[in-house]
Amino acid sequence: xxxxxxxxxxxxxxxxxxxxLLSSSTIRILYISSFAILAMGFFSAFNKKAMSSSxxxxxxxxxxxxxxxxxxxxxxxxxxxxxxxxxxxxWSFFAGDALASPTHWxxxxxxxxxxxxGHKISDYTKPNKKxxxxxxxxxxxxxxGRSKSMSTSSTATIIGDIINHGKQKLWSPNESNHYHGTxxxxxxxxxxxLARVLMKSIVNNDGIFDANHFRDAYxxxxxxxxxxxxxxxxxxxxxxxxxxIFRQLNPKDCPDNDHHNVDTMDGLILPTIVALAGxxxxxxxTNNNDNHNNPExxxxxxxxxQKSAAECAAxxxxxxxxxxxxxxxxxxxxxxxxNPNDDEFLNKxxxxxxxxxxxxxxxxxGDSSTMSACYLSSSLPGLVDMVAKYMPNNNDxxxxxxxxxxxDRVWQGLLANANVGGENVHRGSVMGAILGARxxxxxxxxxxxxxxxxxxxxxxxxxxxxRAVVQVxxxxxxxxxxxxxx
Length: 486
Prior knowledge:
Number of helices: 18
Order of helices and strands: HHEEHHHHHHHHHHHHHHHHE
CATH architecture: Orthogonal Bundle
Helix content: 40-55%
Number of domains: 1
Structural class: mainly alpha
CATH class: Mainly Alpha
């Protein structure tokens, strides 16, 4: 039985790991060593030492236990390695959004950023309250796109009265306000706040995405005053609640499309979280099959995750284009977590690139050339190229703990994205999910974690999410896993 170092308490993660999980290669060495020790007759001494620091699970339920090691190989990754990649993905997902919020829709690029903030973005920064050239003042309070309004006799407005409570004055035609000027330093925009709602929904549903459960949670969150601090709400949300309030439609029929502002990059935010939760399907399927590398098994898992991602996209938007892209993207996200081989993952990523933008990724791209608007057709090429350019790999550092090392590249990539401007917040999030998964949590710099707001709440929600989706299946023998006493 292999003993690996347990993770430190979550609070100590804020100051980065002091101990690192053992790499897969180290685990293999330990296997050989342990059998050698057995043959030499020292097993009893080894076992006594192991039992002093770990507790072997018997037939007790594991629902409330945090798994810290496993001898089962899940596509060449142990349970703690998968946890490490998941945590890296989620923290970096939040970071990509929060770092870019000050410069969201800055189409003047680096020059405009320096003019507004006095320097390039180099850390989490509170967005300015005002933004010259902002089109927030042209956006429709009661529906999608620009002001044309689904006029009714009601004096209530969707923005201000139904959602984004008290923010309608900031959308005034006489104002020129920043889209996220009400956020704190390191705080997330609305779409990523909804990702937190989705994570809680998955946790409350035993680690599984359920569209009906999430829809209810979405409506409750959006219609509750003070549930978030963002100023802006995208077209899809304004149309959804206009349909629900003014047209009195069933919530299942409220997703809509103005054929301009819905098939957009922000539509990939929620499916990314569902794809990360898909690791649960991977773990269960792998442990129920003796041949872990069975191509049919991988196809089955991918199909299930793709279906869930498309269903998630359809909760808030009516878009067959987005559902299709969410399905493709979900496979990339899942692969980023479960496949430790850099070359194999890059091949999978380029398969996605060829399907999505009709060419392989370009890792030599100039950052500024990737600036784009939010529409999928224009934003996907920049996403693909920036991920390829800043992707960590096993050559960047020791790569211990199931990640590919190179955590500094995650931070560098997300800062580069923030300094591009344009539609960079949602691109930053989905980009962060891939980069963070490839590096692993214990490789990313503590600065990336510590600057997020509200840190303690995020820490708990991420921990709960990882525990929920990385559950040890009942088919895995209790003797095959070790848990900490905490």
